[in-house]
Amino acid sequence: MTEKELFSNALKNNLHDPTELSDEEILTARKRGAVVRTSYAKYIAAAAAAALVIGGSVFVFGRGVKTSPQADDISSTAAASIAAQEHTSELSADEAEILYKDLWKKFQNSSNDYYAHAIRNETENGITTYRAALIENRFEAPESEAVRTASEFFGSASSIEYLGHRKTSDETDGKLCVEKTVDDTVYELFVNGPASMISFYPREGLKTAKYGCSYLMSGKSAYVLLNVPSESGAGYTNYYYKVTSADGKYPLFDGEKCSISSWETNESNRSYVMDPDELKAQNGSETFTALDTEKRIGFEFTVDFKTDGIPEFDITKLILPEGVDITNGKFVIQLDTNEKIAVNRTAEIKIGKIDMSDLSLDIDPKKIVSVSLKAVFDTTEHATAGEYKRGKANDDSTWEYAYSISAFLADGAAARANSPTLAAWIEPFIPS
Amino acid sequence: MNGQERFKEIYNGTKQSVLRYISAKCLNIADIEDLFQETYLRVYDSVNGGCEIAEPEAFCIGIAKHCLSHYYTKAQRLKARISLSAGKDTDEQIDIKDETDIRELVENTILYDEVFKEICRLPSDVQRIFYLHYFLGLSLNETASLLGMSFGQTTQRLYKAIRQLRKKYIRR
């Protein structure tokens, strides 16, 4: 993209060509006693059509007009009907509205089921980034209020614009990818970007997950992603919306960064970043067991959180039912620092120490803020993989393994929860 | 021809020139849509009130001028007459290549928002140059003519702004 295209797109993305308004749209605005921008006029038309369909509920999106729709404005039957459909293509404007409202209502009604997880990073270019997710509740959930706030805001947004869709199974489909760095691994929907991403997932976990919601906030708008699985479990469709706040304020975002209160309690704004001493004090040399949800397959390992170097990993046991073997796969150890996004070390799945000493050349051990171990593999029970395709690595390579078991060993969530041990969620890649 | 048909005819025949006029005279490009719509709401009132309009374009631009005058305070208008970007114009030609590959930097629409925000912080005359050139697609010659500037002034101000913007997004 050239600079010319950048400037042109920046303007066209934020301004409407008023000559696209028909004479009738201007007259419509006149009758309402308010000026209606192009896109909102379209929504009014869509809303009017939707109102006919769902029994007369009327919702109007207009600039500066407090007539924003509430979730209850929508017939629950109609909403459920549309949300339950398998969406594999772009929705009409009214369908998109109903899907959007219905999903935020779901999250609003179950906000206690989530907690916030966040890591602050600074990129090599000095840009502060935030990785955040609101994920299923394994601890007490002090941030549930934040979830509720976000849900209420997006459930009654004053103006939204349906931007298009993207199928995870087809990267080139859909009109818009709001955030290219979204990792399609469903339980690693973390984002590194110039703004903040909040993600929502159902409590039941990913195995039974129906929907996910995320939003990416900039100073001007919020880009909302609805993540809807296909009925077959073979993929997801992401629907993108642009939500504009009348007052320019958004929940959990202060204009520059995420503002979940518990993130920032000390002078360095890094309360959730544990330095090596803290890692050692809280974790020391620990032995962990990571199992799938059926507690059949997993592994044991020891991690020595050293104060003066890269943590040492020692795989001590592979846990497999009798007659089941691992056919292929790998361990992926990820170290996050507050300067670089991540450093990975891949190792063969076998018992023994994983040599990571050379990683100290790539990162400063004193700046490690998060440590995780993941195993992705196939077994003789689940020999291959096409149907289990789920993962996508940071380098855009795709994993095709039957299982992925992750253990997050030390990070902000664990620190806040005062949990000295495993802060992990473990789900096998079993199709629902 | 009834009032609504007459309005449609006037609107379709004048909207491009009215938009250009407003774009060249506004103090902030974010106001253009409102000013445009306000102009035609007043035109509609006039048409509906039985006003005979012999020269639709002149009539609509006259109303647009009136809307601009009402929209901005006198102090704002006076301030805008002194270009904040004009002081350091030189004859120096600056080579701004348009081939800069920023694909990696433009990964999402958030960048567009940030660039737009920066454009809106530029002096109003420079905002107008951006709008006319990059949004309406006018050539720099046309843009200069519409703004009553010389071609050199127009390009100097544009390039200076691009250099400022570039510092911001290249940093990413």
Mean pLDDT of chain A: 55
Which residues of chain B form runs of ≥5 with pLDDT under 50? Answer: 78-108
> How many helices of chain A does DSSP assign?
8
Poorly predicted regions of chain A: 29-88, 115-142, 169-210, 261-276, 383-396, 411-432
Strand content of the residues of chain A, in percent? 25-35%
Task: Give the distance, in angstroms, between the N- and C-terminal Cα atoms of chain B.
Answer: 57 Å
Please indicate the percent range of residues of chain B in DSSP E strands (runs of 2 or more). Answer: under 5%
Q: Please summarize the sheet with the most strands of chain B.
A: none
Q: What order do the strands of the largest sheet of chain A run in, or round the barrel if closed?
A: 3-7-6-5-4
Topology of chain A as a string of helices (H) and strands (E): HHHHHEEHEEEEEHEEEEEEEEH
What best-fitting shape of chain A do the alpha-carbon axes yield?
elongated
For the largest interface, the chains and their residue counts are: A-B, 47 and 49 residues
Helix content of chain A: 10-25%
Give the topology string of chain B: H per helix, E per strand.
Answer: HHHHHHHH
Straight-line N-to-C gap of chain A: 40 Å
Any idea what the radius of gyration of chain B is? 19 Å
Give the structure's gist in a few sentences.
Chain A is 21% helix and 28% strand.
How would you describe this protein?
The complex is a heterodimer of chains A (432) and B (172). Helices cover 21% and strands 28% of the residues of chain A. Chain A has a 5-stranded antiparallel beta sheet with strand order 3-7-6-5-4. Chain A has a 4-stranded antiparallel beta sheet with strand order 8-9-10-13, with no helix packed on it. A 4-stranded antiparallel beta sheet of chain A has the order 12-11-14-15. Chain A has helices spanning 3-14, 23-32, 38-53, 76-84, 93-109, 144-155, 276-283, 412-416; strands spanning 114-122, 128-136, 159-167, 196-200, 212-217, 221-229, 236-244, 285-291, 298-304, 312-319, 326-337, 343-348, 352-354, 368-379, 403-410. In chain A, helix 5 (93-109) runs antiparallel to helix 6. Chain A has 432 residues and is of the alpha+beta class. With 172 residues, chain B is mainly alpha-helical. In chain B, 67% of the residues lie in helices and 0% in strands. Chain B is built from 8 helices and no strands. Chain B has helices spanning 3-25, 32-48, 56-71, 74-81, 109-120, 124-135, 140-147, 151-170. The radius of gyration of chain B is 19 Å and the shape is elongated. Chain B starts with a helix and ends with a helix. The model of chain B is unreliable at 78-108 (pLDDT under 50). Classes of the chains: A alpha+beta (432), B mainly alpha (172). Chains A and B meet through helix 1 and helix 2 of A and helix 1, helix 2, helix 5, helix 6 and helix 8 of B.
